[in-house]
Amino acid sequence: MKTEKKVWIHDHEVFPNFFSSIMIDKDSDEEYEFIINRKRNDLIPFVDHILNKSNYLIGYNSTKYDNIITNYLVENVNKFVYLTTNEITDKIYHLSCEIINSQKNNQSIYWNVALKPYLWTKHYKTVDLMSLMAFDKNRVSLKQACIAMRWYKVQDLPKPFDSWVELEEVDEIMLYNRNDVLATKKLQQIVNSEIKIRGEIGRNYGVKLWSSSRSAMADKLMGKFWEQATNKKYKQFKDIKTERDFVNLKDCLSDLIEFDAPVLKELHQSIKDTKWEKGDKFKRSIIFGNSRYDILLGGLHSYNNPMIVEETDDYYIKDVDFGSYYPNLMINLKLYPEHLSDKFLVLFTTLVTQRLKAKAIGNKLVADALKIVINSVYGKLNFDYGWLKDCKASYSVTLNGQMFLLMLIEKYEKIGCKVFYANTDGLTVKVLKDKVEEFEKISKDFAEYVNIPLEFADYKKCIIRDVNNFSIITSTGELKEKGVFVRDLDTVSTFLTPNYTCSYDKPVIALALYEYFHNGIKPKDFIPTHTDIYDFAMAQKIGSQFTAELHTLKGSKHVIIQCQKTNRYYVTTINSKFFKKRKENGRLNDLAAGHNVSIINDVDDNMSIEDYKINYQYYISVVNKIIDKLEPKQLTLF
């Protein structure tokens, strides 16, 4: 009877005299462990498992580490059966060092001759969650992901990877190995919808996407579409780009731009007079109406003082967004990388049209795939290593986008409708109730003028600390949160937030802000009643030039506890300080700004919240500082 091949979550550990691998079934608790050391040789069972029981292997950083080790053992098993276990582990260890050194020296593993034969999997399919989530780009370790997904155990490697494993240490290494696999399995469950999307889109377009980030998916799909449009192979165009040492910004600006206000005319002329040279920074700032606006090569931003804006008897709050702003700017202004000719614009326009049709008929698969591609194109225009690179096309998109926004702001301000927030592709406006018809006519006429649709939303209340930190209630009661106001209510939704980087910093702060601003509960009344220790936690990963130390007192004795590289901690009333120590000179840097800290890399669900000795006053003060900026206290004489 043929053995069913399954999907396994896996992870390897490698030391000079020790190798282990644990595989746990994606859909059950079925588990296999393999060890090679002087007391045990599971080489043959391991290879048999790969060849006869494995359909997919899901790992974390597995494409650039674990899979290479796996392929090495599978390809060389017939030679290795004649070696001693010490010889086998020595070979595995040297291959592991080759991988680690390549990455440490910023050398691509794909150019390493020793690794090249083992880079591609032949006997199984693979999903690398690190690259799928683009965590490799932001150097997010599995330990940081553990903290972000509230995993109960955050554990670094128990001993240096280049040290020998004694027999009495094997159990500890295996516990660490198993924890990594279980954590990876949890992460797989959290992001499973993203894995499914890649499978469905890949099958539909005939492209392998299993371990691709959204950006990489867009690259692969766009490359395929351009191959089809030009009858060229990817290798024929993958290295071409338009390099520019300078750009005269007047050549980027549309003739549709026109202003009446002197300050806006001066801004327009200043940009036209600018010759941008490679490496230059670009920024212009203006005050218009009651707001300051920063114009950059990336996008328009208002500079906001903390404010609370609510709908009143005199005005509505309207949010105004340009629909598919950058794609529409590219199409309408005929913007494309110079080296690709207008054929690219034809293809891009076709993709936008196909997406709209797919969305209209409910073909979600095609609509989602094309959305990923379309939304990525602007970003690729200024990506140094991509075949769409042309910074002039990129700046033409962003500068015209900002100028059009400022034109619309000017028109709203003329009728007394005050714009108090702007960011990239939209505005938020106080619309006087007796000016609604004029506001709507201005919006309609301007949308037709630039040939880009405007989308509207009604807000009841806007709590804005700054342009990147706000909490907004829409007229339908929906909440829009960003930055410090984002509540970590659902781990799945949090991880699927675009560009998520696993940052984790006192989630109780956002919860307390919500309770205060939306339910009227003061921080001093909410925070001490909150019972989830994870919400009080912070995360710290230290660099290789430091060690981490917890300094505490046991009785009257000063005790220093060596900590791991990645730590989860909270502010406590217990007398203990958390430092990073520079290896070269022993200098200490307090990681909690003088506050007492407890490390909670291991969370015990049976422990009561009172036992943690949380310094509630610290968290209350953090929230109150944010509130005080939004609601300045009135000075009184008495």
% residues in beta strands? 15-25%
Strands, count? 25
Low-confidence stretches: 634-638
Radius of gyration: 28 Å
- Helix % is 25-40%
User: For the terminal residues, how far apart are their CA atoms?
Assistant: 89 Å
Can you describe this structure?
By secondary structure, the chain is an alpha+beta fold. Helix content is 38%, strand content 23%. The protein has 19 helices and 25 strands. The strands form six sheets. Strands 12, 13, 14, 15, 16, 17 and 18 form a seven-stranded antiparallel sheet that branches. It has a six-stranded mixed sheet with strand order 4-3-2-1-5-6, sandwiched between helices. Strands 21-20-23-24 form a four-stranded antiparallel sheet, with no helix packed on it. The radius of gyration is 28 Å and the shape is globular. Residues 634-638 have low confidence and may be disordered.
Short description:
This protein has 638 residues and is an alpha+beta fold. It is 38% helix and 23% strand.
Question: Which key features would you list for this structure?
Answer:
638 residues, alpha+beta, seven-stranded antiparallel beta sheet, six-stranded mixed beta sheet, 19 helices, disordered C terminus
Secondary-structure topology with pairs:
Blueprint: E1 6-15, E2 18-25, E3 31-37, E4 40-41, H1 43-53, E5 54-59, H2 66-80, H3 85-104, E6 125-128, H4 129-132, H5 142-148, H6 170-190, H7 192-205, H8 214-230, H9 234-237, E7 246-248, H10 262-272, E8 275-277, E9 283-288, E10 291-296, E11 301-303, E12 307-310, E13 315-322, H11 325-332, H12 341-360, H13 364-380, H14 391-414, E14 418-423, E15 426-432, H15 436-450, E16 454-466, E17 469-474, E18 479-482, H16 491-495, H17 507-519, H18 523-526, E19 538-541, E20 546-554, E21 557-563, E22 566-571, E23 576-582, E24 588-590, E25 597-599, H19 616-630
